[in-house]
Amino acid sequence: MTTTAAARSTAATQPIIEMRGVNKWYGEFHVLKDINSTVLQGQKVVVCGPSGSGKSTMIRCINRLEEHQAGQLVVDGIELTNDVKNIEQIRREVGMVFQQFNLFPHLTVMENLTLAPIWVRKVPKKEAEETAMAYLNRVHIPEQAQKYPGQLSGGQQQRVAIARSLCMKPKIMLFDEPTSALDPEMIKEVLDVMIGLAEEGMTMICVTHEMGFARTVADFMVFMDKGEIVETAPPKDFFANPKTDRAKLFLSQILGH
Amino acid sequence: MTANPTVQAKPQALIDGGFPAGGLMSLPAVQWARANLFSNWINTAVTLVFAYFILKGLFGFLSWGVFNAIWSAPDSRLCREAKGVGACWALITEKYRFILFGTYAYDEQWRPAIVIVIFIALYVASAMRRFWNRNLVFIWVGGLALIGVLMWGGILGLKYVENERWGGLPLTLSLATFGIAFAFPLSILLALGRRSRLPAIKAMCVGYIELIRGVPLISLLFMASVMFPLFLPEGVTFDKLLRAQVAIIMFTAAYLAEVVRGGLQAIPKGQFEAADALGLGYWQKTGMIIMPQALRLVIPPLVNTFIGLFKDTSLVVIIGLFDLLNAVKAAIQEPQWRGFGVEAYISVSIIYFIFCFAMSKYSQKIEADFAQARNR
Ligand SMILES: Nc1ncnc2c1ncn2[C@@H]1O[C@H](COP(=O)(O)OP(=O)(O)OP(=O)(O)O)[C@@H](O)[C@H]1O
Ligand SMILES: [Mg+2]
């Protein structure tokens, strides 16, 4: 797996996410300070950093769940502004997986998967269901299609959530601590799905503390602290020789237990 | 009751000893009664005292309401003789048509009778999941059109009956049905508006809800009947029944809006975010993700408000409409039937109770269905 990562990133030259001087405040509190970053098509980025450093806020700006107040954010060639048309267009191309799964509890798994393709992408129902079945197979739970989310385990729910995003055929996938709410024995089944996705060349931005996953998959690591991007480096370099003291401290805490 | 186990065990053993195994004492009902009603002497005493009062009350009511009751009489003479001893159901057998249909033209009262049946059929159809599809809309449109034709007449050889003369149960059912049918969607819009990020819309909805909730329905009805016409241009009339209906809708919508808002507030932020992240638009998100969950959460208070509305329709008396309750009042105003209010009110209470109880039972049933589906 690691051999292909470098090969793919050299092939990918098209920038798909560009952040230039992005700033955000919650009232007086400066959450994002002058964020600059470019992600090329097909790249996998793992974002890490201490709690409260602004990781979630940053990736939630990419699909406009949060609004940035200064700077420029271009996703898939479209600049994010207050224009609702632009926002909806970008959201169609950007899938998101949440820590708390956020499946729709009143709908079956199948309905969760087909709702957005049918209503947003206007895919015929039958086709949407076929696609949904294909993705359920990919995440290894085709037999759960007619169940309700409340009847599934956490790991199964998170895999349904990933399949739900994939059914929209997005160009970019955002993951915000997808395994943090899971019991240890379920983490692997979700990570395996994510690794599979990475191998297929999906552009991914993952906030996660799973450093094994980061080593396997990431093209580069982004380390954040106090609202700033402190360090950007390939995982090999980042883990072996962190340049800043803040990154060293963070790594010693997270790896040294 | 804190029963001392040794005290409890003693009579138990005595009783068990007195009966052969497998006898009367082993019936589940008897065992339940022994465990819950006669477990010790205090329990037994309380049980006996309550049983005495319950039986005495029941017997008193039966002898008044059934055994000594006057069931039919051409006038009230017999009833007056039996007053205090037996109930005068003759009042109902004599006056039921006025109570049920109000001042509707006497010879045409088969029409409101059919209307009642149609209303009930519509309720039953709507309650059945089998009909929960687009056809239900057509069933309702057809049903209501038929009801309109029957009540007004004026076509198909039916005599025209102006709506000033409608009354009794059909009036109650129309006010309640149209009340719910219009107030409910309006309340959803108000609740959404109250949470809107647009200040003008939010202010309008808050203002409306607070203003309407702050006044009694009776004064709204009064304003609708007296003040409303003053604002209309000369020559434009707007009939009394419609004005009452509008007042009821406006009033109920304000209450329902707060119930719906309660449900909306209980939906986790993650549901909104997941819908947004999938690219759903505002109305898609609201209609398919948020509202279905919010409304399920508030079924009990929603039905509470519906039941309240059903009974509040009787307040239309102050603008001179004869709904079910007011038709009863009018019936016992007649000199010869004066003094038999209890019988009359018991009868109409039974009618109100049947409708309200059906609503309540039905709401429990769908709540249970939804809970089962989600397996929570
Ligand atoms: N709606 C809000 N209003 C005010 N402050 C907020 C809001 N949301 C987040 N914050 C603050 O912004 C900072 C960054 O939050 P964020 O959720 O992005 O951190 P994070 O890096 O994802 O942390 P974690 O690892 O705990 O998820 C935190 O200090 C948080 O308290
Ligand atoms: Mg976070």
Name the descriptors.
heterodimer, A: 257 residues, alpha/beta, six-stranded mixed β-sheet, four-stranded antiparallel β-sheet, 10 helices, 42% helix, disordered N terminus, B: 376 residues, mainly alpha, MetI-like fold, 2 domains, 17 helices, binds adenosine-5'-triphosphate, binds magnesium ion
Helix and strand arrangement:
The complex is a heterodimer of chains A (257) and B (376).
Chain A: H1 2-11, E1 15-26, E2 29-40, E3 44-48, H2 55-62, E4 70-75, E5 78-79, H3 84-93, E6 94-97, H4 109-119, H5 125-138, H6 154-166, E7 172-176, H7 184-199, E8 203-207, H8 211-217, E9 220-225, E10 228-233, H9 235-240, H10 245-256
Parallel strand pairs in A: 3-8, 3-9, 6-7, 7-8
Antiparallel strand pairs in A: 1-2, 1-4, 4-5, 9-10
Chain B: H1 5-18, H2 28-36, H3 41-67, H4 77-82, H5 90-101, H6 110-127, H7 134-152, H8 168-194, H9 199-213, H10 217-226, H11 228-231, H12 240-265, H13 269-277, H14 282-297, H15 299-312, E1 322-323, H16 324-331, H17 341-374
Helix pairs in contact in B: 5-8, 5-16, 6-7, 6-8, 8-9, 8-12, 8-15, 8-16, 9-12, 10-12, 12-14, 12-15, 13-14, 15-17, 16-17
The complex binds adenosine-5'-triphosphate (ATP) and magnesium ion.
